[in-house]
Specification:
This protein is an alpha+beta fold and 237 residues long. It is 18% helix and 24% strand. The relative contact order is 0.19.
Length: 237
């Protein structure tokens, strides 16, 4: 949801939502250092409680009391520590053609700092600017797939990793899911190696617009469309 037309009371509620999510991910990172599956259970249970009770829950108010989050079972094979590679170029490695159609739902251009800037489509219309800061080569059981990692150009900044996979439109939201969104405190932390990040797809979550179309959510670009099923994280069916 955009923040342009909300009341002062709603802004306070939104600040509290973000505070609670930040506290949750802090606890998740601390617990995952010892037991990543226990950390995932904490994340899953706390998010469901917030979705049911918090006034800034993305779930419509009429549905909150009966809301039941759905997840695949935890899969330790889908937790990775991945080093950030150089700035991404057009890349067919995820099963898509490297020739994008003229009306592709994002644009690439060189920014003044030598990074690729992307205008990602937003679910409610329009675009939002991001900077491509590099590529992550993820060693899935089905083989390596590449995902772009982005930095939000406006707003509060922050890392952003949206993705689509072969479950979209069936078990998961058709426009994909998020793994990292550090502007909203969804941050699994750095890896042990310099320049690395933790990618645990068991923590993949739906954008708010998956629950209610009044929310405004940037969508995954074509280069982050995986040709495999990611059977981990949140699901809708």
């Amino acid at each position: 949801m955009t923040t342009d037309a909300i009341s002062s009371a709603e802004r306070l509620e939104l600040a509290d939502w973000r505070r609670r999510i930040a506290d949750l991910y802090g606890a998740v990172r601390a617990e995952a250092a010892h037991d990543s599956e226990t950390a995932w259970r904490l994340w899953r249970e706390t998010r469901q409680a917030l979705f049911r009770s918090h006034p800034q829950s993305p779930v419509p108010a009429a549905n909150r009391a009966v809301f039941e989050a759905r997840h695949w079972p935890y899969d330790a094979q889908l937790r990775f520590e991945v080093e950030l590679q150089g700035t991404i170029e057009s890349d067919p490695a995820n099963g898509a053609s490297d020739a994008e159609p003229a009306d592709a739902p994002f644009a690439l251009a060189e920014s003044r700092v030598g990074r690729l800037t992307l205008a990602l489509p937003v679910s409610t219309g329009g675009e939002q600017a991001f900077i491509s800061i590099g590529r992550l080569e993820v060693p899935f059981p089905q083989g390596i797939r590449r995902l772009g990692l982005y930095w939000m150009a406006g707003y509060a900044g922050g890392l952003f990793l949206p993705f689509r996979d072969a479950t979209n439109g069936r078990e998961t939201y058709g426009a994909g899911r998020y793994l990292l969104d550090t502007a909203k405190s969804a941050d699994l932390g750095p890896g042990a190696a310099p320049g690395s990040v933790i990618l645990d797809f068991n923590f993949a979550f739906h954008p708010s617009c998956a629950f209610d179309p009044r929310w405004s959510c940037p969508l995954a670009p074509a280069e982050n469309r995986l040709d495999i099923r990611i059977e981990a994280g949140e699901r809708v069916a």
